[in-house]
Design a protein that fits this description.
- This protein is α+β, with helices and mostly antiparallel strands.
- The protein has 2 domains: 5-212, Distorted Sandwich (Beta-galactosidase, Chain A, domain 5), CATH 2.70.98; 221-587, Glycosyltransferase.
- Helix content is 33%, strand content 20%.
- The strands form 9 sheets. An 8-stranded antiparallel β-sheet has the order 6-7-8-11-17-15-14-13. Strands 1, 2, 3, 4, 5, 12 and 16 form a 7-stranded antiparallel β-sheet that branches. It has a 3-stranded antiparallel β-sheet with strand order 28-29-30.
- A hairpin with a 3-residue loop joins strand 2 and strand 3 (25-30).
- The longest helix has 21 residues, at 366-386.
- It is globular.
């Protein structure tokens, strides 16, 4: 039986993560890394996906929460005769004089008795490599499971409980405490409760220290900190990449096929990630991510992808796993993401905006500055050649290419930031040349992207449909907040795309039909746009409505069902939480343009 997506909390250690249900079952985990094959996959197949549950021998009440400002989960199980808690975490802490991390691919589960003598059953059923046939056996120090068909994979369970009872799923009494450690690697250090408790304290200290360095705010501070902790947890420490979500193929709508693998790093959101980390006081996290983005995009060629693997991989070939039936029987289950091949012109604006921020916020040596300047010139040159061409757009449409207004606007951003960078570096000849190009692109958008009939900037040239991405026009500096065309666009977009206080990306038919669920990030874009046009009260209503959809531990997915409020899509979604932070900061009075309103509007 499937749990609701909202019934899960997430643990992780900046290498991988796991989803733990409110009833104490690990139903999704990939080891050793975020993008590895699943060890537990019941989330995508309730019959053979694999899981690790710790259950009492009778009906009990359950509650779940994070341990303070950490990414450690505590599930409390209570009945009339006993109660106990399950503490789940993945180890992370600094070693070697604060210069490196220990974040091994392992999951710890501590069971601690609170009252009475619980009788529990540890249902330990790993199904490795996306539910390939898997067999377990008891060895001297652990229980080992390995695949019996296809690619070889193995996993090890360490515990102080009776291994035979665990392997066979038999109940046992817990007098005081017990532990389990699921490890991708064989452990070289003897595992006992004292060792496990030490790992717990080290991990708890790491997260408390990190969250303590987060700037505090008067409004919505708890939501900001929880969202920041999630963003950090979804950072791949070895390279600095930030995964969009730790799951694959959770459907945008139950029973439909809008199921995608999000365990990759999208270039589009890089500027937003860096701005957010900087605003929250985590400069090192921002800089590490900046290095990842710039390192995968160096050079003079046009071969810039919209997304990359966690280590900078370029080939993210998409495949369907027929052995898994999908969440709530909603196939297909996909791994990889074919959108990496798409041409989306907005990424050039994203990259130049990122470089502009980098040159402002991070000190650079001469050689690095020269490399960045070379990349800027290459990006603007590409935009000059391609901005008049159609593309797939921000929403990765898999059908026909169109002249999307957001793509054109971000092409303008690429040139506008190029102008600013050239001016910053004293390259006046480029300033004069690129200013003319910026004016040309802006004029084209004003002529072809604006519809008098609709009273708004539309989704693509010649369309009557609206698109939530156009709410970002003012934020990116293309248009002023009090411009009647922008104000009208915001109001018309809210009118057409907002349902029960939640925003759709668009509502016109695409390759898969009519969208039926809201896109959480777009709701926060609407909040920001309403603040900027002077409608703060309306903005606060939308913000409160959307944030009311967070689950019991404060997490959001990518989509929300506008009829019943259920969370849908991949979970937890980094960019939903980025949007929450940005809106919360704006409602706290933070400078909405981050760079002291230095953007300037180039009027055609």
């Amino acid at each position: 039986m499937y749990m609701k997506i909202s019934d899960y909390g997430a643990i992780g250690n900046c290498r991988s993560s796991a989803l733990v249900s409110v009833r104490g079952s690990i139903d999704w985990a990939c080891l050793p890394d975020f993008d590895s094959s699943s060890v537990f996959g019941r989330l995508l197949d309730d019959e053979k996906g694999g899981y690790f549950s710790i259950t009492p021998d009778r009906e009990c009440a359950y509650s779940q929460q994070y341990v303070g400002n950490t990414n450690i989960l505590k599930t409390t199980v209570s009945c009339e005769s006993y109660s106990f808690e399950i503490i789940d975490f993945m180890t992370i802490y600094r070693t070697d004089g604060d210069q490196s991390y220990y974040n091994a691919p392992e999951i710890y589960r501590m069971v601690r008795v609170l009252r009475g003598v619980p009788v529990i059953k540890a249902d330990y059923h790993p199904m490795l490599d996306y539910a390939r046939p898997t067999r377990g056996k008891i060895e001297a120090r652990h229980i080992k499971h390995s695949t019996t068909e296809g690619r070889y994979e193995s996993i090890y369970l360490y515990t102080d409980a009776d291994k035979k009872r665990v392997l066979e799923g038999e109940p046992f009494h817990v007098e005081d405490r017990t532990f389990f450690c699921v490890s991708y690697n064989q452990k070289l250090v003897e595992q006992d409760f004292g060792r496990v408790y030490l790992e717990y304290q080290r991990t708890k200290t790491y997260w408390l220290n990190w969250s303590n360095r987060t700037i505090r705010y008067k409004l919505y501070n708890d939501k900001i900190i929880r969202s920041a902790l999630l963003l950090k947890m979804l950072t791949y420490e070895r390279t600095g990449a930030v995964v969009a979500a730790p799951t694959t193929s959770l459907p945008e709508t139950i029973g439909e096929s809008r199921n995608w693998d999000y365990r990759f790093c999208w270039i589009r959101d890089s500027s937003m990630v860096i701005k957010t980390f900087l605003q929250l006081g985590h400069k090192n996290s921002a800089r590490i991510f900046q290095r990842f983005i710039l390192n995968v995009n160096r050079g003079k060629n046009e071969d810039i992808q919209i997304m990359y693997g966690l280590r900078g991989e370029r080939d993210l070939e998409e495949a369907v796993l027929d052995q898994l039936k999908g969440y709530m029987n909603s196939p297909p289950v996909r791994i990889g993401n074919g959108a990496y091949r798409q041409k989306q012109h907005d990424i050039y604006g994203t990259l130049t905006d990122l470089i502009y921020i980098s040159l402002q916020k991070f000190p650079s040596t001469l050689d690095i500055s020269e490399e960045l300047w070379t990349l800027v010139r290459s990006l603007v040159a590409v935009v000059a050649r391609q901005w008049k061409l159609p593309d797939k757009g921000i929403w990765e449409i898999r059908g026909v290419e169109r002249h999307f207004v957001y793509s054109k606007m971000m092409s303008w951003v690429a040139v506008d930031r190029g102008v600013k960078i050239a001016d910053m570096l004293g390259r006046r000849s480029y300033v004069e040349e690129w200013e003319g190009l910026a004016v040309e692109i802006a004029g084209d958008i004003m002529r072809n992207g604006w519809s008098e009939k609709v009273g708004a900037f539309v989704q693509h040239y010649g369309s009557d449909s609206l698109d939530a991405s156009n709410l970002l026009m003012e934020e990116m500096g293309f248009i002023e907040a009090d411009d009647p065309k922008y104000v009208s666009t915001v109001l018309r977009t809210r009118e057409q795309l907002c349902r029960n206080g939640h925003m759709f990306r668009y509502i016109n038919e695409d390759d898969f039909g009519i969208p039926r669920s809201s896109f959480v990030l777009c709701s926060f874009w609407l909040v920001n746009a309403l603040v900027r046009i002077g409608r703060r009260e309306d903005a606060e209503i939308i913000f409160e409505n959307v944030t009311a959809a967070v689950n019991h531990v404060g997490l959001l997915s990518e989509h929300i069902d506008v009829e019943n409020g259920d969370l849908l899509g991949n979970f937890p979604q980094a960019y939903s939480h980025l949007g929450m932070i940005q809106s919360a900061l704006l409602l706290n009075g933070e400078d909405e343009h981050f760079q002291n309103n230095i953007f300037r509007f180039v009027k055609p």
